[in-house]
Specification:
Length: about 260
């Protein structure tokens, strides 16, 4: 894996970190741009798609990306834009996998699409100013999966709950993003931690999840090993106080691109 590079890419509100063999990076970027364009066309055609907190009729979807968002969020009873970051990350990773990538990830502001041939570590709740972080040890599965997050206290995404962080693991990133939002929406007090998983329990594709609130942790399903690690700005981060691009540059293999339109 000597050709692995880490590239940061921004377009408007999308800020992603792409890690893969250098030859695959451009495919991810182009797919991300295409997915964003699909979503923007849907919003232009029907602004309700952007604002609704309720499931959106998938029959009105104008693209595969939008259809996926509708299907994933319908499964947990929320609005389609709750899965937008996961959908964009998934599009980027799938484009690389289609061209032979077997180890890499797209981290879209804490919503991660990944495929790994060797173990990887994902920081779950990270303050870039802290020296330690809680993390998940992800084993090689040989297939795409999603690890996505939501927070009622940090970040720009809308959450109706108060969790420090809610993390969902699913067999697709778009579904993991929808589930993370649903988990976070259900947490307003510590006693909600266990009950919050009712929104995702039994949904096809759910692997596991965890929710943190004021030092308490709720865990459900098949969650990877939880460890404490020394914080690293180069590691995947399921939630952070900053966007993925705020960590800065850290080496010759780390490139940054910005696109405005």
């Amino acid at each position: 894996m000597s050709g692995i590079v880490r590239t940061k890419f921004e377009i408007d509100e999308t800020a992603v970190t792409i890690v893969a063999d250098k030859q695959f990076i451009s495919y991810a970027i182009n797919a991300i741009l295409d997915a964003r364009a699909d979503i923007e066309r849907q919003i232009t055609a029907d602004p309700f798609f952007l604002t609704t907190f309720e499931p959106y009729d998938r029959g009105r979807a104008s693209s595969e990306t939008v259809h996926r968002m509708c299907e994933a969020t319908e499964a947990v009873g929320i609005g389609p834009m709750a899965s937008v970051a996961g959908a964009v990350a998934q599009a980027g990773l799938e484009a690389m996998v289609a061209r032979g990538c077997r180890h890499g990830w797209v981290d879209n502001g804490g919503d991660i699409a990944l495929i790994v041939e060797e173990p990887a570590v994902i920081e779950v709740f990270s303050d870039p100013g802290a020296s330690d972080a809680v993390a998940l040890e992800i084993e090689s599965l040989g297939k795409i999966m999603g690890v996505c997050s939501s927070s009622g206290k940090l970040g720009h995404s809308i959450s109706l709950g108060e969790s420090d962080v809610s993390v969902a693991i699913a067999d697709s990133p778009v579904l993991a993003d929808a589930m993370a939002t649903a988990l976070g929406n259900a947490v307003r007090r510590g006693r909600d931690l266990g009950a919050s998983f009712a929104s995702v329990n039994g949904v096809n594709g759910f692997i596991g999840g965890l929710v943190m609130l004021d030092g308490a942790v709720g865990i459900f399903g098949d969650v990877p090993k939880i460890v404490e690690v020394e914080h690293s700005k180069s590691r995947m981060t399921a939630h952070s106080e900053t966007s993925s691009t705020a960590y800065g540059e850290d080496g010759n293999d780390n490139k940054s691109q910005k696109v405005r339109h």
